[in-house]
Amino acid sequence: METVETFVEAAGRHLREGEPLAAYNVAQAGLEQSPGHVRLRQLRALALARSGDVERANAELASLVAQGLDDSETLGMLARTHKDLALRAGPAGGEHLRSAFDLYERAWTSSRTRGEVDAAGYAGINAAAMASLRGERARAGEIAREVLALPDGSDPYWTAATRAEAALLTGDLAAARDHYASANQLARGRHGDLGSTRRQARLLESHLRIAPPAPSSALPVAPVVVFCGHMIDAPTRASPRFPASREAEVREALVRRLGALAPVAVYGSAACGSDLLCLEAARELGCETHVVLPFPREAFRETSVDFAGGDWGARFERALDAAGSVTVTSDHRARNSAATFEYANLVFTGMARLRARALDSDVRGIAALDGSDPGAPGGTRSIVALWESGGIPVDVIGLGNGSAARTSTQPTNAAASTAGVRHEMRTLLFADAVGYSKMSEDQIPVYIERFLGAIAALARRYPPYEHVEVAGDGLYMVFRDPVEAARYALELSRLAGGTNWAAHGLPATLNLRIALHSGPVHCARDPLTGGPMYTGPHTSRAARIEPITPPGQVYASSAFAAVAAAVDAPLALSYVGRMPLAKGYGALGLYHVRGASFAAGERAA
Asked: What pLDDT shows up at residue 569?
């Protein structure tokens, strides 16, 4: 059994590296073994705050303070959540901003009294920043100068970052730039800490109206890379696209591109050829690698690696064993279908976007592509089109061979295994009426007329769905667009939670649990009813999320979050953690869809 210290160290490392979701999962696992452990609760709260669920982080830390934990670190972390809530609220966030300042100032005073240099630097610089944001420029400068007078802390990175921010607040922009440059040199892979420092610097520079080039320009942003490319040509391929003779050339080009970008991490799949070459180059450069497979490892190796012969199979195994994460998007391979590949492409693109958002970074694409290849659904050209449509810059390594390929290595839906059954991407919504089983016989007609009638009226006003089924307390809806699914889920949740059902003779606690999931499903005609049918393993996965969703909330799978992020959907999603699904269906990373902002350019926290 792992020790609590192991969990603490791992969670802290993930936070430093800019992986708050992994940090949350580790802290949660540690708390299951050691309930109530203070440091793990602090780290879990910090992971929540960095992944966007500031409300839960605030509640966790407020609970610790209420239990008598008033050390400067806990107070400072609670203050940070009030700051985030204030920034989210805009002009209406004054009370949160005041709470943040009061807590930071309290921690600043107590840590200096105790002679805690590290804690004093953290609390003091944040108290100064909050004073500045509240318009108290003189108080901000006073505290910042006192922070500059502190001795160096134990962590050279945070010492440099703190001095940079203090110089910024006192108006010494040259010194601020120098200190930020020093912090950047000292970071050594601490991408999460760099992202946090950069966000704070940009916030203050905007507030202080500092003209470019601002001091934060000394904190360069390392991108997150997504990659794709053609597989090595099969021996039976009629027209060359990526012949084995070009492997060294493509490898050298990938090393150059990755070396120039110096990314935090790379995300993609692991087919023979371009994928594995990119993973190998990234490892040599010390980058994180994250692999997404459309179906289980053994089946993927059989379809997309072993046909090339040579040592590609061994290289595939090494790449997966060395990866920071391996995600399998579907439990089974669907033969003659491009949807599983399209799904995996969306998921790894979305995972990269989510990671970049957590790091205050950008996503860049690299593709090894034969420009004359006509492309196929789920293939390299379709991935590049997805990236370009979403504003991701793509660096193409040309594999032009002068003629279009006459065969396709990716399956297409045109050859579906069963006539009339299509395998296509959809977003699925499952909802359950909480309290239905406790209704009396006389209440059921009222439920049908009032509760389901209100849902039907909403559907008529807002009809983005493709299919709907109702069975007593259950609602199943199918959408083509994940954004429209999220919009509808939120409207449905507001309707259910915002209506006085008791006035209609129904239980006052009547509400909905709503779950969202995206994935490929089989679309057909139901032989029994003649109506449309949407079914498959992913419908089961969506149905298992709904029973564990709290009443009045909308939960979504991590796959839905990734698919939505892949298309740059303006949704606000907060990570909940890996949760055990209903009926022993395993565990799944889930997000709370707590609201959505559809303003142009606004991004999820």
From this structure: 83
